[in-house]
Specification:
This protein is α/β, with parallel strands linked by helices. It folds into three domains: about 160 residues, Nitrogenase molybdenum iron protein domain (Rossmann fold); about 120 residues, Rossmann fold, CATH 3.40.50; about 120 residues, Rossmann fold. The chain is built from 16 helices and 14 strands. The longest helix has 24 residues. It is globular.
Length: about 450
């Protein structure tokens, strides 16, 4: 059991935390025909849009209510109504996802009441669908915003039905998965003859669409979310999905199966066994072949990975999934783990402590010189450079590598690529070190 320890520094030097609104926006981008609307200043939306555009190198649809100082103080109903009306007129989205920010939350705006007043003022818009997510950016993190957005969406859109759809499965996915990971999960369920409703489906952010679109063109269809109550079961993967899975179970009496993580061999074995029980089918030959290959890769790479010391940082679901796999199955040691925010799943890790802080906490670690590899998002490269160790990129967000979201890390195939890439970084580092000439025998130092 790990102890969650808050960093006691006066300020953040190498930031790790991303805001709650950004997490909610990321979730909404996985819903088809959605227009995310940030209820705050222009700067709030500009930051989110810039980061996500750099991550996917695609157009990211985000609008803002553009609160001024006066609107923030005296009230912003007019700003919100004007923004919604402009979006509906110009883009006609299937749903508008409204995300609050520090500015609107500090004043205490009644956004849900404002939405009702909008429908009363514009009676021809009464059929329009809205999801509101309360995400003040002065607390919580990306993880919390994503978690709230999923729960709010399910509560708002899922409707009562009177019959079940055979083989239909609700699949609630954490933010830790790439577009390729989502494809792997969907293909796995399809191979068992199951019909997944994936929420959110961020595999649409793969760059496959052509041309400019002002709203999300791919993702989970709203009609599918409305029919979640007709599914035979819910599979929730990651702590950020747990509350939404519990809601569907209590509200619609749908059996819910929860996985802290499906990274690695053992966790994905459990996932496959569940699919076998739900479908009554055996895994196909492709799945069996990649499981054998993964076992071989783990065996081949253990000479380079077992016993290696790791510094890892990230959002809770990513931090838990990667750490759990590397410790329990690969035999690596997590010397220091840093999370952006608190989450109950982190307490289950076989570590002494998890620091709730920023990337500088790694540099303040007493035995940092003994760390062999750094694992984290793009910003971790600064830490890896200072410690002169390899950097394995994973998490939210990766902005210094093209196509990272097209790489898979879960499933037998994705995990085999994950392990081999990790081992290759260590091998390359050792190869470089082997060619270094000791200072005492360099030319000019010989007496």
């Amino acid at each position: 059991m790990a102890i969650l320890k808050e960093s006691n520094k006066a300020c953040s030097v190498y930031p790790l935390k991303l805001s709650q609104p950004l997490g909610a926006i990321y979730f909404l981008l996985g819903i088809k025909g959605c227009m995310p609307l940030m209820h705050g200043s222009q700067g709030c939306a500009a930051f989110a849009k810039t980061l996500l555009t750099r991550t996917f190198l695609e157009n990211i649809p985000i609008q803002t209510t553009a609160l001024s100082e006066i609107a923030t103080v005296i009230g912003s109903d007019d700003n919100l109504h004007t923004a919604i009306e402009n979006i509906v007129k110009k883009n006609d989205p299937d749903i508008v996802g409204i995300v609050s920010t520090g500015a609107s939350e500090t004043r205490g705006d009644d956004v849900e009441g404002s939405i009702k007043r909008y429908k009363e003022l514009y009676k021809d818009r009464a059929h329009k669908k809205f999801v509101f997510v309360s995400t003040p950016d002065y607390e919580g993190s990306f993880h919390d915003g994503y978690k709230k957005a999923m729960l709010s969406t399910v509560k708002t859109l899922a409707k009562e039905t009177y019959e079940k759809v055979p083989k239909q499965i609700n699949l609630l996915l954490s933010y830790t998965f790439t577009a390729k990971d989502v494809d792997i999960i969907k293909e796995t369920l399809n191979s068992f003859g199951l019909k997944p409703i994936v929420l959110p489906d961020i595999s649409s952010l793969d760059g496959g669409c052509k041309g400019f679109h002002s709203i999300t063109t791919g993702g989970t269809d709203i009609k599918e979310i409305e029919l979640m109550s007709a599914s035979m079961a819910t599979i929730a993967i990651g702590e950020s999905t747990k509350e939404a899975g519990e809601y569907l179970e209590k509200k619609f009496m749908i059996p819910s199966f929860y996985f802290e993580s499906i990274y690695g061999l053992k966790n994905f074995d459990r996932f496959i066994r569940l699919l076998m029980n739900l479908s009554g089918n055996e895994p196909d030959e492709k799945i069996k072949k990649w499981r054998d290959r993964l076992l071989d890769i783990i065996t081949d790479s253990h000479f380079f990975l077992t016993g290696r010391k790791v510094a890892i940082a990230g959002e809770p679901d990513t931090l838990y999934g990667i750490s759990d796999f590397l410790i329990r199955e690969i035999g690596m040691e997590i010397s220091i783990a840093v999370s952006s925010t608190q989450a109950e799943n982190l307490r289950q890790l076989p570590l002494d402590e998890v620091i709730i802080g920023d990337l500088e906490d790694i540099l303040l670690f007493d035995e940092k010189e003994k760390v062999d590899i750094a694992i984290g998002n793009t910003n971790m490269r600064h830490i890896a450079k200072k410690l002169d160790i390899p950097h394995f990129r994973i998490g939210i967000s990766i902005v210094d590598k093209i196509g990272h979201h097209l790489k898979g890390f879960i499933g037998y195939e994705g995990c085999a690529n994950f392990v081999s890439e990790l081992a290759n970084l260590i091998m390359e580092r050792e190869e470089e070190i082997s060619y270094l000439v000791p200072d005492y025998i360099k030319r000019g130092n010989v007496s």
